[in-house]
């Protein structure tokens, strides 16, 4: 009978854990090689276990009472007790066995044969050459304290003991601003720093303002937590906080984490800074606003002058009503929206913003001077998620698509190509869940999807990503190889990328597919020829004289053409953001096509100079971008 695999595993004998190095060492213990004598009883009934930090004094004597070494100052030591973490620290075998038997405050004498201390074969703890490791010795141990600790550094150079638990889950990290009460003692108990009254210490994470080990330990604390952070000398880096670290072997920091503020460098250059003044509700970043969310905020705008002049306050200037806007539509300054998108509902933040992310590229209030640095105090009251298309009929979805596409078109005309592209791409992602029910809906769905891909291509072309523009056009042409507008758009992208033969092939193919596109194709080919000639002139000028010398002579090539653009083809498409159709070059092509072709719009179109722009504004021109 076949045995079920799960059942076979269930009834199989349990696998033994792989023995640790300490287990292997314990197997070498011979009865009588370690003996314990109680000198002073301890208190309580708990004893140290693996993972506990033990703090103890140790004095080693020969059997006739001669002190070999000691941690006690009166016996020649430094006065600093030993700290070990059971199961983590390297220890001699006799202490590994004897310490877990002790109570807090207990003093015991451990009599060890050589194999139980430094005479053990392959002992993990080194000792000086003059140490009597081949002799039987007495180890007097005083158990000062033991407790659970968190290991911060693998080498045990930074440990933390929690005294009082904190609140929440978040801990400070770079570049948070922190306030904390801190005092510090050396390992032998000497007080070297204290701040428990007045104002707590204030510092910024990641700025080397406090010793490295202290910062590492505080990086694991939560708000309101009290802890002792044990730091050895390799982590006691110099800082303005505590300059005296020379000669100190370890420091015990008593810390109470009062408060910390999240500070985000939004641009990575210190210009756009968001400081969280009050926590919000939820978990970051899952509960932050998404693209196209409807946001509700109160905000106060201030100039970064000496008086922090307030130029707008929704609670005063908007009749106490919050500002409502949809994210990703360019309806507020870019710096404000970037920061709000990383806030939780109920959060209060202070944002310092440079002019290029504030009002230099956005309609500027009358009382805000050009080039002004701004500070916003922002409170995110809440937000509504974007409409879910699940369960909507096709017509309702397409109406929503038209609204989003219309916003993208507006952003495109305003020159905000990245935002426009985000709108189009959002709809394309959601289209994966749309299922047309009949041929008519299927055609509308296909036409809209193609148009969105071409709009994405236009955005890529505007931001100089010619190859990505070509890829977007290919998504249309893969489904419909005779799509004239896609050929035209791809031809323009090829031309901008300098791939002239591919561009010519697309423009010629337009004419063979649709005769009515011939004027546009002809104008594009004229422009293409001009581009080729322009590049040819540049190349000839650059290499002029290279082959005019006699054999054996080398001519210098003129690399810099007097400051002219060395790559006119790739850079020609950039800019032109003032054109209402979003692409000045296409307007020029269409005007050239209209001049070269027979009149198609009647007498009014030819006789009235502004008629062309009028018809274009009505969307009656072929191959318009949007």
Structure notes:
The protein is α+β, with helices and mostly antiparallel strands and 626 residues long. Among the domains are: 21-147, Chitinase A, domain 3; 158-261, Chitinase A, domain 3, CATH 3.10.50.40; 264-384, Chitinase A, domain 3, CATH 3.10.50.40. Helices cover 31% and strands 22% of the residues. It has 17 helices and 20 strands. The strands form 3 sheets. Strands 7, 8, 9, 10, 11, 12 and 13 form a 7-stranded antiparallel sheet that branches. Strands 14, 15, 16, 17, 18, 19 and 20 form a 7-stranded antiparallel sheet that branches. A hairpin with a 4-residue loop joins strand 2 and strand 3. Helix 8 runs antiparallel to helix 9 and helix 13 (518-542) packs across helix 15 (584-596). The chain is elongated, with a radius of gyration of 38 Å. Mean pLDDT is 82; it is low at 1-17 and 554-626.
